[in-house]
Amino acid sequence: MKPRILVIDDEAAIRDSVRMILEYEHYECIGASSGPEGLTILKRDQPDMVLLDIKMPGMSGLDVLGEIRKVDESIPVAMMSGHGTVTDAMQATRLGAFDFIEKPFTSERVLVTVAKGLEVRQLKRENRELKLAMESRYEIVGDSPSLRVVLEAVRKAAPTNATVLLTGESGVGKELVARTVHRNSPRAGQRFVQVNCAAIPEELIESELFGHEKGSFTGATEKQIGKFEQADRGTIFLDEVGDMSPKTQAKVLRVLQEQEVERLGSARTTKVDVRVIAATNKDLEEAIARGEFREDLFFRLNVIPIVVPPLRERRADIPQLVQHLAARTSDEHNIKPKKFEPRAMEALQRYRWRGNIRELRNTVERLMIMAAGDVVRFEDLPVEIRGGAPVATAAAASNDVPQPAASAATPAPASSAGTLREFKDTAERAFLVQKLRENGWNISKTADVIDTPRSNLYKKLEQYGIKQEVDG
Hints:
Layout (H helix, E strand, L loop, with lengths): L3 E5 L3 H13 L3 E5 L2 H11 L3 E5 L7 H11 L5 E5 L4 H10 L3 E4 L4 H31 L7 H13 L6 E4 L6 H10 L8 E5 L5 H9 E2 L11 E2 L1 H4 L4 E5 L6 H13 L1 E3 L6 E3 L3 E6 L3 H6 L5 H7 L2 E4 L10 H16 L5 E2 L1 H9 L5 H15 L4 E2 L6 H4 L4 H7 L22 H19 L4 H7 L4 H11 L8
Parallel strand pairs: 1-2, 1-3, 3-4, 4-5, 6-13, 6-14, 7-10, 10-13, 15-16
Antiparallel strand pairs: 8-9, 11-12
Helix pairs in contact: 2-3, 3-4, 13-15, 19-20
């Protein structure tokens, strides 16, 4: 479709001249002889751009520009004038005009301005679409009672500058809640800076958080601005804050107390205005009792505590979540939308979802890509979700898979478990031992493979008394 340009000018000769220039270059041109007529056409025909004369009888071009902004502030407007002043140009710019054309003008000048205006229009449209896509991507989906408690806490916390501490299992959506707090706060127009404290090596985390000066340590070839300074006037999200070393905890505490940072290698402090949101899947009060986490830092972080529930406690939200994730997968992978048959949806609601929303998202994505036809059926679901034997158990039962010899780390058979809790513990212990063996007892690799934080895996090893097997 041809780009549509609206020309508002009281001189017919100007309108005809511009029309000839534009139509020769395959633009559609609409003319209006006055401001009120131009505004009527604007609302009716929705042009892609406006060329507007400043000096017109009755309603001036600047008045028309103000009204255009009320109708559609995204539409690009270029002003035209044969006797405009610098004051007129400045006022037009303040009102939102992107260019100013002096009369008499050349064909090239008009065409360059129109091309520039249409580019501005396209960029605004893309930015708007991106913003909507991001909001959709980071939308909290669901209406279960446990989620409503979270949303109410977010509603109360967002308008303030108070520190927020999010707790909950891995994969429950703590980052999503943090982004929602930021997006609904007075800082929404500023940066949201995320730091995964568990993913950064101990020797680098201080430089990452607080920055460093050139030459402050081996390899510091350039000055680096830290995450706290990057988040100035915005929000910093400290994910897995329970994995910080005592030394780093002390420095973060100082930032919270003094609202200032000191880069490595510098004696000068820099003031920062930062809202802090922290998250962890650890029990920080237990960590305090073990001497692993500072109590004073905990009190600073825990001003507004929000517990994000696991997916098994909000099963009523699963159908809505599945539909949301399916639509997102369809858009991201450019595949045809699929529906989930009722039996499949019921199975998804029954499943335990140890990996929470992260596991659900990965499952829905796989089903959307791999399931044949327009409907995801019960038979398309992984066997463990259908209610059959878990994949690991089925593999272990196969004659093709050699069974490991019994050892101190090998759990008792599941049949010996007396209660459901004992059976689950025995099965989980067996699963962990199997995965550790498969990955050569490498804790980091195993945690990555089973999609759980290292800290959580260490906790499980201690809980079940699992120790590395020694050959011989």
